[in-house]
Design goal:
By secondary structure, the protein is an alpha/beta fold. Helix content is about 30%, strand content about 15%. It has helices spanning about 10-20, 40-45, 60-65, 95-105; strands spanning about 30, 50-55, 70-75, 90-95. The protein has a four-stranded parallel sheet, covered by helices on one side. The longest helix is centred in the N-terminal third of the chain and has 11 residues, at about 10-20.
């Protein structure tokens, strides 16, 4: 089901304590390869308000924009992001993008 979140490596209950310990609530945060995870919504519910979520899938970003219209969503390829200024974030949160990019050699992410 496309509208159901998929949590590859765990949900906020797995990562939340670590994030809250190391990232400030007012920090600018990039969620790299956000997918259709609920983690960005959970971050918002826990006081993180300056979060930009990116994924290379237009379908995923469209779906997340409908699910959570009050959050910031952008289509972007992490290998080349001219639409995002260099050094514009205090923290980057990545639950599994490196594994996905490293192992999927024939996908759009490698273009």
């Amino acid at each position: 089901e496309k509208s159901k979140a998929y949590e590859w490596y765990g949900n906020w209950s797995v990562f939340g304590g670590f994030v809250e310990k190391h990232v400030g609530k007012n920090d600018s945060i990039l969620v790299a390869g956000c997918g259709n995870s609920n983690v960005s919504w959970d971050m918002h519910k826990n006081g993180f308000r300056n979060v930009v979520n990116v994924d290379f899938s237009t379908e995923v970003i469209a779906s997340q924009t409908i699910r959570f219209p009050h959050l910031s969503w952008q289509v972007a390829n992490l290998r080349h992001m001219p639409e995002i200024a260099t050094e514009s974030f205090d923290a980057v949160f990545d639950k599994g993008t490196l594994d996905a990019v490293r192992t999927w050699k024939k996908g759009r992410a490698h273009r």
